[in-house]
Design the sequence.
C-alpha cells in the first residue's frame, strides 16, 4: 500500500495520474495547504521541504521498512522503477524521458508558479505597480518561451519523449494545460502542437479521473482572517519563520 500525502494542485495531480495509470493501490492523506498541514511535524519528517506531494511506500522496492519519497519528479521515477511502466529501464529512451521530467521540474512548474504569483496574487501583496508589472512580464514571458519550446518539440514528436507516453507527459500535463489561462487568454492558437498533445493526454481515463478528483477541496469560501492566514503561510517564508516547525519535527523523529 502506498500513502499519498496530497492536495489537488498541479503538483499533487502528477502523482495521482501515475498511480492510476499503473493501477497501484493507494490511499490519500489530505495535506490542506491552506491551513498549514504542510508544516505539521509528521509531514515534515517525510517531506522536509514542507511541500506536498510525498509518498510512503509500505512495500518498497527491495523490501524492508516503509520508504518515504518527496518531490514529484523523484516520486514518478520511483513508481516507474517499482512497476516497470512508463519509463524504460535503460538506454536512450530512459534519458529522453528523464530530461523532460527535469525540464518540467526546473522550468515549466517554477516559472508558471512565479507568473501566477505576480499576475494573480501580487496585487494583494505589493503596492509597487512597476515592480508587479516587471515581475509579470518577466515570468509570463518565460512561460511563453517554454510553451514555444514544447510546441516545437511536439511538432515532431507525439509525446515529449518520442512515440511513447511516459512519466514526462504525466509530470508536465497538469501545468501545461493551464498555459492558455496564463498567457493566451484561453486560446491554444499560438501553440497548435502543444494543444494537440494536451488534448490527447487529457483524454486518457486516468488523467481525466485525476483532474476531476477532489477538485472541490480548495474551493470553499474563506473568511478575511482565513485568507490573511493563508497568505502568511504561502508567501514570504524564510528559515526563521519555519524554524519552530522543523525543530518540532526533528524532536519527534
Sequence:
Amino acid at each position: 500500500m502506498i500513502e499519498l500525502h496530497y492536495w489537488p494542485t498541479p503538483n499533487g495531480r502528477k502523482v495521482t495520474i501515475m498511480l492510476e495509470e499503473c493501477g497501484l493501490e493507494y490511499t490519500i492523506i489530505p495535506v490542506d495547504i491552506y491551513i498549514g498541514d504542510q508544516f505539521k511535524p509528521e509531514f515534515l519528517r517525510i517531506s522536509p521541504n514542507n511541500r506536498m506531494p510525498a509518498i510512503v511506500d509500505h512495500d518498497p522496492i527491495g523490501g524492508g521498512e516503509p520508504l518515504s519519497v518527496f518531490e514529484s519528479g523523484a516520486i514518478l521515477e520511483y513508481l516507474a522503477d517499482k512497476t516497470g511502466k512508463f519509463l524504460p529501464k535503460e538506454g536512450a529512451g530512459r534519458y529522453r524521458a528523464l530530461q523532460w521530467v527535469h525540464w518540467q521540474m526546473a522550468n515549466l512548474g517554477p516559472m508558471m508558479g512565479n507568473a501566477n504569483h505576480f499576475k494573480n496574487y501580487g496585487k494583494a501583496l505589493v503596492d509597487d505597480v512597476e515592480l508587479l508589472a516587471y515581475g509579470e512580464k518577466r515570468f509570463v514571458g518565460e512561460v511563453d518561451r517554454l510553451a514555444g519550446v514544447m510546441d516545437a518539440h511536439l511538432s515532431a514528436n507525439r509525446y515529449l519523449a518520442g512515440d511513447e507516453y511516459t512519466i514526462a507527459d504525466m509530470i508536465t500535463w497538469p501545468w501545461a494545460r493551464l498555459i492558455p489561462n496564463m498567457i493566451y487568454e484561453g486560446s491554444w492558437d499560438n501553440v497548435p502542437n502543444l494543444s494537440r498533445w494536451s488534448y490527447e493526454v487529457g483524454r486518457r481515463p486516468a488523467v481525466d479521473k485525476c483532474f476531476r478528483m477532489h477538485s472541490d477541496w480548495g474551493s470553499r469560501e474563506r473568511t478575511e482572517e482565513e485568507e490573511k492566514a493563508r497568505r502568511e503561510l504561502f508567501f514570504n517564508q524564510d528559515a526563521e519563520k519555519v524554524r519552530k516547525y522543523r525543530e518540532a519535527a526533528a524532536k519527534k523523529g
About this structure: The mean pLDDT is 92.
